[in-house]
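Figure caption, in words: inputs first, then the predicted bound structure.
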Amino acid sequence: MLKIGLLGAGRIGQVHAQTIAGHPHSDLVAVSDVMPDNAAKLAAQYGAAVKSSDDIIADPAIDAVLIATSTDTHSDLIEAATAAGKAVLCEKPVDLSLARARECQARVANNGQPIMLGFNRRFDPNFGALKTALDAGDVGRTELVSVTSFDPAPPPVSYVKVSGGLFRDMMIHDFDMVHFLMGDLPETIMATGSSIVDPEIGRAGDVDTAVATLTFADGRIAVIKNSRRAVYGYDQRVEVLGSGGLLQAQNMLENTLIKSTAAGVALAKPTYFFLERYMSAYRAEWDAFVSALVNGTPVPVGLDHGVAALVMAEAATQSLQLGRPVALGDI
Ligand SMILES: NC(=O)c1ccc[n+]([C@@H]2O[C@H](COP(=O)([O-])OP(=O)(O)OC[C@H]3O[C@@H](n4cnc5c(N)ncnc54)[C@H](O)[C@@H]3O)[C@@H](O)[C@H]2O)c1
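Bound structure (nicotinamide-adenine-dinucleotide present):
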């Protein structure tokens, strides 16, 4: 049984506590949070101890840590935990700063511990089935990938101000999805964006609506569309057009009722937000991490994937500012 310390007991930390405690080969033994009430409440729920992040990292009885703290702490905690001999699963993104993420990558290179990045969407069964069909050649050669990712409602502006911006905070998942599906990184990224959902987001220096076009050296193209507001719910779809057909991974709906009347045909809305939509993905992600540790195999998504996604986010951010495509090689 792997003994796990959870760092960060906020929104996503609470999800991970559930997956860690629910797994047959992992035990949630300790929880930390700089807000003591957060840690105490979550630890009590699972019979875990409350400790500081430093004490969890220093505890020789703990095998691995899950980092679910605020983004600006990730690099420091990855470095400290791996130096102390802990395997790590860290939430995305690696850092708000690409330079700091690259520094972290260099510093942990010889620590010899597995580090997995929390790109949970790779473990979503719908996107997983699409990837399996793609790799099997079911639609021939990939030509155009389209990723739609709309949140149901914008976050508070206080969150936007510390998020690193839409490309690092939100589109980072979609950059990784394109990397996952294409098996490669694009040559250039062209991004556009505006703040038409909430002008306050614009005043905070960010955008709430954005499109990125990723062009690959061999001519393949990917388009990512993000919005911080879709009034009908969390819209998460992926489409791949290949030389031999089309693959589409659609939304999960709240229920399967189809109501057909004289007024038309109506379906239920998509599941509300990430907690509802991706719960099975978070469980599968944790299972993949535990399996890698138990079997001594490489983790399926590494720190290098996290840095690659940040490079794409940086290119998109620069492209928006410059109004022209940016080559990844220049980042
Ligand atoms: N993969 C996903 O679907 C997903 C979803 C949401 C958030 N995230 C990522 O997870 C991270 C946390 O996001 P959140 O929404 O849960 O935020 P949150 O603010 O709800 O929770 C973060 C918690 O970390 C605590 N914290 C900060 N520094 C700490 C430290 N040094 N040691 C211990 N605790 C510390 C805070 O007090 C807070 O309780 C972010 O990096 C975010 O990008 C990923």
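The domain at 122-280+309-330 is CATH 3.30.360.10 (Dihydrodipicolinate Reductase; domain 2).
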